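Record type: ASSEMBLY
Status: queued
Input:
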Amino acid sequence: MNTTILLFLLQDGITNGAIYALLGLALVLVFAVTRVILIPQGEFVTYGALTYASLAAGRMPGTAKLAVVIGLVAFAFDLYAMRKTLHVPRIARAFGLNLAFPVAVLLATMWVADQRMPAGVSLVLSLLIVASIGLSLYRIVFQPLAHTSVLVLLIASVGVHLALQGLGLLFFGAEGQRGPTLLTASATLGSLRFTGQGMAVYGITIAFIVGLWLFFGLTLYGKALRATAVNRLGARLVGIRTTLSGQIAFLLASTIGALSGILIVPITTLYYDTGFLIGLKGFIAAIIGGLISYPLTAVAALVVGIVEAFSSFYASNFKEVIVFTLLIPVLLLRSLAAPAVEEEKD
Amino acid sequence: MRERWPLIVFAVIVAAIPFIPGVPPFWIVLLDNIGLSALVAMGLVLLTGVGGLTSFGQAAFVGFGAYTTAVLSAQYGVSPWLTLPLSLLVSGLAAVLLGLVTVRLSGHYLPLGTLAWGLGLYYLFSKLAFLGRNDGISGIPPLSIGSLRMLDPGTIYFAIWAAVLISALLTMNLLDSRTGRAIRALRRGHIAAEAFGVYSPRAKLLVFIYAAVLAGLSGWLYAHFTRAVNPTPFGAQAGIEYLFVAVVGGAGYVWGGVLGAAIVVILKEVLQSYLPLLLHGEGQLETIVFGVLLVTLLQLAPTGLWPWLTARLPFKPLAKKPDTSLKLPARERSATTPNVLLQVDNARKQFGGVVAVNNVSFDVQAREIVALIGPNGAGKSTTFNLITGVLPPTSGNISVLGKAVGNAPPQDVVKLGISRTFQHVKLVPDMTVLENVAIGAHLRGHSGALSSMFRLDRGDEAKLLAEAARQIERVGLGDQMHQLAGSLSLGQQRIVEIARALCVDPMLLLLDEPAAGLRHMEKQRLGALLRELRAGGMSVLLVEHDMGFVMDLADRIVVLDFGTKIAEGTPAAIKTNPEVIKAYLGATA
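Status: finished
Output:
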């Protein structure tokens, strides 16, 4: 092997690793706040990427309609929950968030789909669509289950993954798509070529890591979100609105997922079910980080990306096997260093 | 035998279905698929619903079973009947290896871990040359008995359903036994079960292997049913679907697995044939409906359909009263009992900078009731945890009958004849009082998993239940014996814990706030019981806040405050001790 290949593999690994890091962060964020292990994170990636690619190609993405439909369901849930006390400002808020917002986005999308807009407009619309889906999903699926065990939430999460993946096939078909690059500039350093897209990936990842770390570590609101995860009842007693915390977590996670998708769709072809595998690699990183630590997750994600790049070069057949079994030694270490027995509740 | 009637009736119905004239052959294929799925789901019931260990990776074990027989019978011409034990062995061994790594993981790490190795193994199946890569292996011979070759779905039907019924019977036998109780206690945390000698990691590994072997059996049947295997049915999607099957049917119930399999297989068939007509879309529409249904089900009926169904049955199964004339041999004790049973010498426990127990020393003599009192946070429960091995002491010595206990785990401490109750009741709420109390006698029984499955444990089991029943009657809860522990009042649950501790046949009983939540009469009965135990030669160490109760009962009182012993003496001396009054009332009165 020569240095060029080594460097090239490293660069490739780091670019993928940065994406896994973004996803890993979102997973840690959602878990830390809502205790939901967000399997559908992969679908947010696919939806974001394919919505962006569809818009760029001048097609109307089905996700925009989905956002309106499940927004409607979420609004119905809210109405039903508030049937005893018709609190007008709250209904207005639910209406705005769950219905008016996705309808406005749908109208904008319909308008944009006809005329070729710059990539930036497609990006923003895609993010808004997926964010709205994430928000409504929390209301419909996870908010009613908020008091249950991690396990029930996990199984529900798998259910959402199945449904969203099936819908993905319906909206985008079985063919893969690619989208236009965000930044076309590029620079060459020695034998390595740095594309603008790659730099955007690095920049956005670093910004999110630092941002989340600061938010949860230093701000009162970040701490309130963490308190919700540890003890919902306790958090409510001290005046934290746990539902709002969950909404924020899902909003952030779906946005991050969609953004990751939009960042990679110009680099690789994405299919309706690619997101699941990408999301799972983010998971491996998140698990290595113990579902708690943002910096550790980011480092682990880079390791996963690099291992993947090297194994696809040397043993491309066993790439996935190697990446997924990477988890076993980590689990082994974690179980050896298992903390004192904790009582589990049902 | 009477409780087996439903099973026999079900077996007869299942056997009769293919002979009913006019049953479309297609239905038999569906029933075959239901049976195959039910086997895996049954394993998951034990693993997830009963044991609390969620696995998304069961499909991989099905793959181990299927590929083992595929390779051996198709490529080396080994008879399928010889590959059956090998298929089960390979799945079981894989479960041992994966289980050793994963079952000790707590909470959500376990399901995620299973998802990861489930995917890894799927890719392995699809890449290995000797497993035929993505094309898999074809030309697997059918099962045959003599000249009867099970080529069509109608013949292998009998093999599949015989496997389902036998597995169901063995699984139910296992659950209704000493080992079964240990498994059922897993889901509610380890501390209580371990305090009575259950090795939780071992019990977890056992259910893990059991579920994998059932999955392997399903895989073996599947391979000879379709006579070709490829990696697709062993992927993550399938693993998720098996869990779905168990949750739909009722993850806590053996028949829930069968019911769930029937519902899911039929639903899938219906969805696959009608949805495309309805929506004119391309493929995979059923996954959307599946996902939505799964979420709906979790929100509306999280325990699944089986319990919903059985609650509507007009008749209830009769609970059998154990024959209390059977006696368990007493726990082995040393011939001469020295005066000092328990010696706590300078015990210290630090949590980081907090000193919970600060060099506390005291002893408990034979035939003595010692009370450990002190304000909240004085370190009483921590002292209990040090004595029973739940927490290792930071320094100091605890010795029982003159022998240092060291860092012995709870399972070893209970063998010395020390049993306990808990400040926060730790019973399994969905087990009956009798079953909960029988966990206390765990170490006095000997039957293992295999003998339980084949009902060779009945003699041993009857004695355990008899002992449990005797202790329940002794504490005065005979009428509540067959009620679910969770349905009792908190005070009664504390008494159940005492009965459970008595099942150990202890020489020293540790009671953590036994009188809390009891009414006046109940307290008096409890006091009388403890005196009776003392008269019978037992010693009691209790933590209690009810001063009237303690002063009346205890021979000696040890007072802790902020982890430090501030006084020790007879009730009369403690009542007038200025240090104690200061600790309780804040100033010298």
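Annotation: Residues 3-333 of chain A form one domain.
Annotation: The two ends of chain A are 54 Å apart (CA to CA).
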